[in-house]
Amino acid sequence: MTTPKLNLTDTAAAKLTVDALVVGTVQGSDGPELAVGAERVASAFSGDLGKVLSTLGATGKADEVVKLPAGDGLRADVLLAVGLGKPDANGQIGAEAVRRASGAAARSLAGVSHAATTLSALDLSAAVQGTVMGAYTFTAYKSDKGDDPVSKVDFVVDSAKDDTNKSALKGATAIGKAVTTARDLINTPPNDLFPASFAERAAELGKTAGLHVEVLDDDDLRKGGYGGVLGVGGGSTRTPRLVRMRHKGTKGSKKVALVGKGITFDTGGISIKPAANMEDMTSDMSGAAAIVASMVLAAELNFPLEITATIPMAENMPSGTAYRPGDVLTMYGGKTVEVLNTDAEGRLILADALVRACEDEPDYLVETATLTGAQLVALGTRTPGVLGSEEFRDRVASLSQGVGEGGWAMPMPEELRGELDSKLADLANITGNRWGGMLAAGVFLGEFVAEDVQWAHIDIAGPAWNTKGAWGYTGKGGTGVPVRTIGAVLADIAENG
Ligand code: BES
Ligand code: MN
Ligand code: ZN
């Protein structure tokens, strides 16, 4: 992962000597309109820029990129007009539109050395985040790496010395980079990223960021009684791990626990998955990747919070040592679970982690996981489901919408608890039917969260992994969702308690 060099500039856009200059277009009622920030570019352009763009076929719709020679009036070589879509109900262009357009522009700028953007006139932070995320590529396993990402981007602002602008650049860069850190982990194939190597990479990232890191190996897990992680991880020759990372904020600050599902590959185990698309299960550690990246972000932005991450890592494989349907596992903390399907493994490793996380007596607990196919059925590929304590769940969902990740609150209907009753253990790991699978998984997790802890579970089965074409700032593969949601939740707790 290489991030472009990012700078603020208060030189007028028309006077910038760059390879490419980015302007925004808005989908107006009769054709494309130039966005705020493009005025001075348009007035210096030799010709009617709006008319030229329209003749070139531009409409201003999201993800549209139109390039043209910048001509005599400007010092740039090429103008890149990127669509922001339609204004919202209030006639405004929202931050997420700026993020996506900046991402689409950054993707289209691959191979270019020096670009400048006027999208920063709409929203500097969003333009920076979108640029960092959109410029991301993962070519570690390609012999021919293709064009390099754009190497330098200048953001046009009123004042480059202004402290608010400087801190916006710093904060937005850190958030964008955290997303790419998560993507790198997710995109690494499962033969290279398995529990031990994942734990090692997490420890390295954490220590570099100044976090305290502890890695429990399988011996430690046995001594500690982590029956869920050991049960799920037992089928693989690559033994499981549990990583703990700590950011020590100021004394007396709020305590936050973070937990993420780290299944480095999910075959389903003995309840094996069909072959079609099984390769997508390389992304089954996306929750864990998001938590590692969020911890690095927390250290970098030095949130005044005490944050502890508990990250279980295992590979779910079928073998002679694998756990079976019918097994009863004794989880960390002593609850017993009857395994009725070894493919419902995420909740088993998370159960151990949640109980361990609650021993630290956090005020809040945020957990995220590629937990259920039912999330995709209910909410589609891009909308995370948010479950948990009602008030905190709604707060997390609302913050998620605010940062453009679109988390949506989902209920945990009481009657589902009975469906998890087991004939011989405290509970079973699945219900006897396929209805409300995302909700049932949430109810299962809730059994392992201490009563007095405000908690939220974010199901990212769809949103974590993009199997379709690139759009906005999202390429193929790992998306980094919900790093920005967690970043926003931590910032909000730091500010409002
Ligand atoms: N990792 C999967 C969930 C998943 C499915 C993630 C599709 C991303 C895309 C999880 O471990 C799983 O297999 N869940 C089962 C649970 C079922 C057996 C109750 C599912 O959703 O089918
Ligand atoms: Mn599974
Ligand atoms: Zn899984």
Automatic annotation (TrEMBL):
GO function terms (MF aspect): manganese ion binding; metalloaminopeptidase activity
An example Gene Ontology CC term for this record: cytoplasm
Residues of the active site: 273, 347
SUPFAM superfamilies on file: Macro domain-like, Zn-dependent exopeptidases
UniProt GO BP: proteolysis
UniProt binding sites for Mn(2+) 1: 266, 343, 345
InterPro entries in alphabetical order: Leucine_aapep/pepB, Macro_dom-like, Peptidase_M17_C, Peptidase_M17_leu_NH2_pept, Peptidase_M17_N
EC nos: 3.4.11.1, 3.4.11.10
UniProt cofactor(s): Mn(2+)
Cofactor binding: number and manner: Binds 2 manganese ions per subunit.
Compartments, record wording: Cytoplasm
Keywords assigned: Aminopeptidase, Cytoplasm, Hydrolase, Manganese, Metal-binding, Protease
Binding site for Mn(2+) 2: 261, 266, 284, 345
Residue intervals of the Cytosol aminopeptidase domain: 341-348
Catalytic activity entry: Release of an N-terminal amino acid, preferentially leucine, but not glutamic or aspartic acids; Release of an N-terminal amino acid, Xaa-|-Yaa-, in which Xaa is preferably Leu, but may be other amino acids including Pro although not Arg or Lys, and Yaa may be Pro. Amino acid amides and methyl esters are also readily hydrolyzed, but rates on arylamides are exceedingly low
Pfam families: Peptidase_M17 (PF00883), Peptidase_M17_N (PF02789)
PANTHER family according to UniProt: CYTOSOL AMINOPEPTIDASE (PTHR11963:SF23), LEUCINE AMINOPEPTIDASE-RELATED (PTHR11963)
The protein's role, per its UniProt record: Presumably involved in the processing and regular turnover of intracellular proteins. Catalyzes the removal of unsubstituted N-terminal amino acids from various peptides.
Family in the record: Belongs to the peptidase M17 family.
Name of this protein: Probable cytosol aminopeptidase
Organism: Allosaccharopolyspora coralli
